[in-house]
Amino acid sequence: MKRKLRIYFNFSSLFSTGIFAAVAVILSFSFFSAKGQISIPNTTPVTENFNGMGASATASLPANWKMSAAGGGATANWSTGSNVTATTQQASLGAPTSGARYNWATTGGADRSPGFMTSGSYANPNSILVYYQNTSGLVITDLAVSFQIERYRINTAAFSLTFFTSTDGNTWTSQPSGDIIAGVFATGASSYTFGGPQTVVKSFSLTSLNVPNGGDYYLRWIFNTTGSNSQGVGLDDVSVTASTCTAFSITAQPAANVAVCSGADTSFSLTAPGATGYQWQEYNGSVWSNLANGGVYSNVTTATLNLTGVTTGINNYQYRCVVTNGCSSLTSN
Question: Are 124 and 224 contacting, i.e. CB atoms less than 8 angstroms apart?
């Protein structure tokens, strides 16, 4: 009498997004706006240096940039109603002391830098936010970010900066690689640097992202100027370079479960157009392990896993396939 072997194949997905082919795309911020966000439509570089703000004390920020209300920097979301889109002071010479949202510049220079100086009447902390959307037709997987912070007034209170990202403008993720700790801009007696501000450049990468085509992405800089006796600082020259991938999916999944007799042959297949690599795995009841050709298994690195002469020893084993194309991976379900 033949003993019937039932083998269950439960393909659990590790990733809910597609497999991708890596392509580098340069992104940064510009004045271009489409439907309420900075559009990233292709590989054309865009930059934001804020020079288009001009020299007005009440200069408007570029489209899709915002500043928090005084003291609201730590809780400001993109949709916070008290956010503003213009500065209240301009400073490129002299000795300003008023707490405000500043349009900073060097004396006689056209280079602008929006930022803050706080006081007893203008609360700390404060933030600058930006919103853009991926319209490239690809998936953003990594971002190389750079920006600079410029100091126009030295003072006795410490300054620090914290950097955050978000995919919805409400829930924020701390990105310490973009932070500036207290002490980097050394404190000192009140003085001004309009002839040449101290500048700190931050350059770092945000990896393992998954911003789909049409997906949103937000940046937030929180300026902590420690209340009164504030230093005067601003943001400038924001640039983002993205790595993107061609989105793809498994279009035909393996069979959910198969029953075969002991000693029989069977196989499991999937279809993933564009995939360049396959690795079948087995789950023996405790751990997932990569399969190697041998024993009952063959073609373990192809789209079709063959099992020849199955035995009762693999009864109820589970199987799945991880497919890749050099950019990311997707696991069958």
Answer: yes
